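Sequence decides. Consider this:

===
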Amino acid sequence: MDKPLVGGQAVIEGVMMRGFGKVATAVREPNGSIAVEVKAVHSISDKYPILKKPFLRGSVSLFESLILGLKSLSYSAKMAGEEDEQLTDKEMTGTIILALILASVLFIAIPTGAAKLFHSITEDPLFLNLMEGALRLVIFLAYIFAISQMKDIKRVFQYHGAEHKTIFCYEADLPLTVENVQKFPRLHPRCGTAFLLIVMLVSIFVFAFLGWPDLWLRIVSRVVLLPVVAGISYEIIRAAACSKNPILKVAILPGLWLQYLTTKPPDDDMVEVAIASLNAVKD
């Protein structure tokens, strides 16, 4: 695409959009009005251009998106009446560390530890690594399915759909009106959900050829190689979103299908919030 890329995230009763050097979070307040917070955002890759290189920019994007996402969630919770104040920098750091630890336990330690159940079948390292990857993928899909059934999360997923539709409308260079936005699909190839699924699939192939060392060494190797996996996955998503190559289009299909769980058709008032967020970064 020739247009500047815009990305986003659903938050509590709202949408965060990032683009044009800014990040905007729009939230539907309890009184029905839309509150919008706009902040300038600078990537560390602006200071260190080497981090913009392929296979490096993916890890940078993932980490920065995590930080911005948590800040937007904190702001949205406050404006939607869910909490009294926003998280401090110290609390934000603690939240990120806790999230990384829980993710490591759920998607790294448990799958690689449970893979020993297949030792009775074979001791082949390649097979065991593949089984570990399969277990990781099953846990991830089960987790997504479980949270998609929660009432509050369903509303967040509706805002997720509004975010995608609005970005599609922007990319089509049409006026950002509710009527125009609602015409577009809610499944977007550059979605974070698709990225995470690609990460799961790429990790299967990356880890498959590492042998089968002791449990702790396996866990450490998975954590250390995560930036490599994220870098490869980011390039796949980025290339597929901007290419007509049929092989790349097929590669991202699982990520699109998963979005049937992580996005829901939005109401018009949710689309209004997404439009307000995107307009705020454009203006």
Remarks:
- The CA atoms of residues 262 and 282 lie 26 Å apart.
